[in-house]
Every structure is written in structure tokens, then in C-alpha cells.
């Protein structure tokens, strides 16, 4: 991985496939955070977008959470119960601390999630790039969040704050927007209406000369419904909160000591949702995302995406 002061280049077989920005200069309203952009196919086609006009807070590939103890780490407006999307001065920031490991094909990073002058969460993020075929590679991203406060933290999404069908957060991929929306399909469905909110072992987005495949790697993640958009904007994000299956409302409770999940490719409130105690892991999640140069026609790509690491 070739590094500068604030950026790092991710490589597969010597070819650059992603640029990782650790300290972006962004307005506070966008919830500044490290991100990958551009991410490209092996032939150089970009498959991410940064701060598009439709959603300026969509920052390529990264990790974002709409509601951590009432603070917005997603960016943009906050969904307020009985009011809808509302501009609030409640945005948090993810701050790069250090790279614990750096290689040409990946890194391990430590980050601090800060809001209102205090640190709420500590994150360990691992990113790795793997060549699958001469036309496909996979991006693996694992993140683990730990509550570093002395008190429980409430974690939520717009769904837990009253917006139906908006249980999202965590890993987020903003795909490239083109003149025609990308096709989205699973093994048994086609189209956004059919795929969104449905369970499937994998889901794929296909645009002009590129395909992204997202696949669940465990029985637990395969039970989660997919959150996908193509019409309004092309993007993918898992259901959130994921701990304890909370999707429509929060719960005040002690979570498991370690909650590990694998995927391979909000009104600010104080109630509900997972409330990890101080010093306890919130969750650890892994995603693998095969990235192809053309329309997906190789069935071997998805099985390789679902192999546990």
C-alpha cells in the first residue's frame, strides 16, 4: 500500500484499485470520516462516488452510523420521530489514530469516534484486497467498535427513530451513478422493489462495464434482509442495528460480550437499541465484495465470496 500523509493506495497484483483517505477536509455536517474512493475494477473503472449532489454525505466506501447516543455519524440530516429529516447540530467525527499494519494489499487501522468533545467509540478497521480472477478482485472490510465510555451507549438508525424500512448503518458502499440505474438482482429476484428488504445469500449490482457482488458468509447474516437502492441513488448498506436483531425499535439492555458477523461481498434519542456498556465491544462485522470488470457471468465468484476467513 503506497502511502502519503493523508492517503493510501490499495493495490491488487501491483495495480491500484482503491485510494484510502484518512483525514479528509470536510464540513462537520458531513460527519467527517476516512473513506475509500475511488474504488475501481482491475481495468480501472470507478465503482464508487464521493459527495454526489443527491447525498453530499455519501463518501465512497466506509463505515457510518446514523445514531450513536443521539449523535449523527452518518452525515446530513437526522431523522426525528414525528418530524422527519431535520437539520441538527449533532454530527460526530471519526478520527484516524494510527495504522497498526500496512501492506500493499491492505491495512489495519485504529480510529476514534468523537462527538461533543468526547470519545464514544474506539474502532479497529481491517481492509484487504484479494485477486479472484484476471477480471475480478474482492475487497474485505472488517470493523470492530468498542464503547470506551463509562456508561451504556444507545445505537440506532432512522428505523429505530420512526422511519419504516430505514434500518441501515455500519458498512456503506455508495456506487457509481450513471445515466441509467444499475440492475440489481439476487438468485431469485430482480429489481430494487423485489430485492430491497428481502433475504438472499447474495445480491449484485451491475452497471456499465462493472458488477458488485455482496454476499452473506454465515447463516446469521443470510437471515438479514438487504437494504439496497438503485433508483434514487445506487448504494448498499446492511440492516442496523444488527446486534440482537433490533431493526425497528431500540432496546435498553446489555449486549453479548462479543458479537461477530461476517458478510463477504435518527431522532437523537437515549432509549432503545443495543446499549453496550463501557469497555464492551459493540460488534464486529466482516464484508467481502467481489468487484468485476463486466457483467457477472461466472458462478464461481459468489462461492469464493462466501468462504469464511
Q: Mind explaining what this structure looks like?
A:
- By secondary structure, the chain is mainly β.
- Helices cover 4% and strands 42% of the residues.
- The protein contains three helices and 21 strands.
- Strands 9, 10, 11, 12, 15, 16, 17, 20 and 21 form a nine-stranded mixed β-sheet that branches.
- Residues 242-274 and 303-309 have low confidence and may be disordered.
In short:
With about 300 residues, this protein is mainly beta. It has helices at about 190-195, 220, 300-305; strands at about 1-5, 5-10, 15-20, 35-40, 60-70, 70-75, 80, 85, 95-105, 105-115, 120-135, 135-145, 155, 170-175, 185, 200-205, 210-215, 225-230, 235, 260-265, 280-290.
Topology summary:
Blueprint: E1 2-3, E2 7-12, E3 15-21, E4 35-39, E5 61-68, E6 71-73, E7 78-80, E8 84-86, E9 93-103, E10 106-115, E11 118-133, E12 136-147, E13 155-156, E14 170-174, E15 183-185, H1 192-195, E16 202-206, E17 211-216, H2 219-222, E18 227-229, E19 235-237, E20 260-264, E21 281-292, H3 301-305
Parallel strand pairs: 20-21
Antiparallel strand pairs: 1-2, 2-3, 3-4, 5-6, 5-13, 5-14, 7-8, 9-10, 10-11, 11-12, 12-21, 14-19, 15-16, 16-17, 17-20, 17-21, 18-19
Number of strands: 21
Structure annotation, total helices: 3
Radius of gyration: 18 Å
Percent helix among the residues? under 10%
List the secondary-structure elements in sequence, H or E.
EEEEEEEEEEEEEEEHEEHEEEEH
Shape: globular
End-to-end distance:
21 Å
Class of secondary structure makeup: mainly beta
Mean pLDDT: 81
Main beta-sheet annotation: 9 strands, mixed
Low-confidence stretches: 242-274, 303-309
Strand content: 35-45%
Amino acid at each position: 500500500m503506497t502511502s502519503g500523509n493523508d492517503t493510501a493506495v490499495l493495490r491488487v497484483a501491483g495495480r491500484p484499485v482503491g485510494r484510502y483517505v484518512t483525514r479528509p477536509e470536510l464540513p462537520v455536517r458531513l460527519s467527517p470520516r476516512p473513506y475509500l474512493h475511488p474504488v475501481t475494477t482491475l481495468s480501472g473503472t470507478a465503482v464508487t462516488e464521493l459527495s454526489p449532489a443527491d447525498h453530499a454525505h455519501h463518501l465512497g466506501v466506509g463505515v457510518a452510523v446514523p445514531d450513536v447516543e443521539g449523535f449523527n455519524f452518518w452525515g446530513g440530516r437526522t431523522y426525528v420521530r414525528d418530524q422527519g429529516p431535520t437539520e441538527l447540530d449533532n454530527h460526530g467525527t471519526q478520527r484516524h489514530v494510527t495504522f497498526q499494519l500496512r501492506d500493499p494489499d491492505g491495512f489495519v487501522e485504529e480510529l476514534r469516534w468523537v462527538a461533543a468533545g468526547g470519545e464514544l467509540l474506539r474502532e479497529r478497521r481491517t481492509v484487504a484486497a484479494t485477486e479472484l480472477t484476471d477480471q475480478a478482485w474482492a475487497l474485505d472490510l472488517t470493523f470492530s467498535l468498542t464503547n470506551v465510555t463509562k456508561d451504556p451507549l444507545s445505537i440506532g438508525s432512522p428505523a429505530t427513530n420512526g422511519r419504516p424500512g430505514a434500518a441501515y448503518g455500519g458498512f456503506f458502499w455508495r456506487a457509481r451513478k450513471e445515466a441509467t440505474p444499475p440492475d440489481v438482482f439476487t438468485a431469485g429476484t430482480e429489481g430494487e422493489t423485489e430485492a430491497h428488504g428481502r433475504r438472499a445469500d447474495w445480491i449484485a449490482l451491475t452497471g456499465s462495464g462493472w458488477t458488485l457482488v455482496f454476499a452473506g458468509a454465515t447463516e446469521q447474516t443470510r437471515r438479514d434482509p438487504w437494504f439496497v437502492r438503485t433508483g434514487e441513488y445506487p448504494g448498499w448498506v446492511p440492516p442496523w442495528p444488527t446486534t440482537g436483531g433490533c431493526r425497528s425499535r431500540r432496546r435498553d439492555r446489555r449486549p453479548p460480550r462479543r458479537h461477530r458477523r461476517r458478510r463477504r461481498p435518527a431522532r437523537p434519542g437515549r432509549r432503545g437499541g443495543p446499549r453496550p456498556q463501557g469497555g464492551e465491544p459493540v460488534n464486529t462485522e466482516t464484508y467481502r465484495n467481489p468487484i468485476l470488470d463486466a457483467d457477472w457471468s461466472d458462478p464461481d465468484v459468489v462461492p469464493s465470496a462466501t468462504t469464511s476467513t
